[in-house]
Amino acid sequence: MINQKLLFARTYEKEAGDKIAAESRPKFHLSPHVGWMNDPNGFSYYKGEYHLFYQSNPYDTVWNSMHWGHASSKDLLHWTYLPCAMAPDEAYDSYGCFSGSALELPDGRHLLMYTGVRKEGGDHGEELQTQCLAVGDGLNYKKYETNPVLDASVLPEGLSKNDFRDPKIWREEDGSYQCVVGARRKNGLGSILLFGSPDGFSWHYESTLIENDGHHGMMWECPDFFPLDGKHVLLCSPQDMLPEGFEYHNGNGTLCLIGTYDKDKKKFIPENNQSIDYGIDFYASQTILAPDGRRIMIAWMQNWDTCDQNGTRGKKWFAQMTLPRELSVRNGRLYQQPVRELELYRSNKTEYKNIAFEGELRLDEIEGRTLDMELTVRPEDKAEMYRKFALRFAQDEQYRTALSFRPYESVLKIDRKFSGSRRAYIHQRRSLTANKEGELKLRVILDRFSAEVFVNDGEQVMTATIMTDLAAKGISFFADGNVVMDVTKYDLFAEE
Ligand code: FRU
Fold this sequence. Notes:
Layout: H1 4-17, E1 35-46, E2 49-57, E3 67-73, E4 80-86, E5 96-104, E6 110-120, E7 126-136, E8 141-143, E9 159-171, E10 177-185, E11 190-197, E12 204-211, E13 220-228, E14 231-238, E15 255-262, E16 267-274, E17 283-289, E18 295-300, E19 317-318, E20 325-330, E21 333-338, E22 346-361, E23 370-379, E24 388-395, E25 401-406, E26 411-415, E27 428-432, E28 440-447, E29 450-455, E30 460-465, E31 474-492
Parallel strand pairs: 1-19
Antiparallel strand pairs: 1-2, 2-3, 3-4, 5-6, 6-7, 7-8, 9-10, 10-11, 11-12, 13-14, 14-15, 15-16, 17-18, 18-20, 20-21, 22-31, 23-28, 23-31, 24-25, 24-31, 25-26, 26-27, 28-29, 29-30
């Protein structure tokens, strides 16, 4: 029996969502069927397909009443909307079905683990956050009878029952299950808790995997923990960050800790820390271990501090997911590459090699808003370093978004001030890149309303959304000083 609230959401999604013109959406980044979207949830491989759920408010383009929207894909790039998977229709999740994760059980059922939130004492009361389960077949999900499976009673002394959320579940080699959940201590700082389960249904506290020592914001949201290339990686999204050089910016940020896992003590010891993404629009990442062994990450291609929720009202959909990205660890750093499936949808290759120039440059056939472009720039003469290189895209007489690089500082900046935004929020961000004597390598993926910039083979990534009119599709290059550049551009999904 499908609950009324879920049925209503499904009917509304179908009616209102199917009316949204495909041309008004990104081509291969997932956007909500209708309404508002935030975090990716339940990223999993189930019965031969990738499933991705998302924090959804179908009824408006602002955050409210969290449902789990649902889509599936065979290649991580073409997504099919499926009916809404969960509505906040139980006493324990009446304030929202918050973020969580999913996996396939050995008996073929799909298990969702999420945070059920309720308010104690009415709408203005205290938020109570608990971990809950739902089981389904890839289409319909039934919430577990004995929800919640983890509540405040399992929390170590001094942890808040108001901030206990975002379970990320995985299966261990011995067939048992574990999950990490974000929690908050009395001093406001986050802790990541580890829980264990023999069957995925009955859960117990194992350890405090790691505590925020105050260097990286306050509460840590959406944790994820996995082995990769001989190391262990903890990804999370800290709230209330203070800036630190070019590494971290104010507000809601992203954090990647790379280190070792002491399996006996069940403690994670970080060795290196870095931002996950150095651009403007990125938060709440979640990974999947794909059947072929790749660790693939997807994230909300927005950020609480950079989206003007009220400004979205009246539109039919808001927000996108990032491109799924393949992760690796090299020399103590996280590397990201767009999923290799993207290369299957390249066409119209245009290539230029060794173009020496200074000043402004345009190149035939290098334009568009749905493309994959690789570019390398270097000084013509190492003894005479150029002062600045810039790539401008989504450009016409009125608009442009720019990437600019100053080799003396090794700083790469993304600037969307002239992208058509009429609000005074964050338009620029800078990132310190590894100094390679003025050589810079970029791979830029454009998909209508976004740019993802993979720097120096994925050593860093800068992501930003742009709402620029699609007619602005020009691309130009600029150099203050003498540079030599190689460019290869492909259109993406041109035949579809
Ligand atoms: C992160 C987050 C999560 C929470 C969800 C609610 O963006 O705040 O911690 O589960 O969004 O929508």
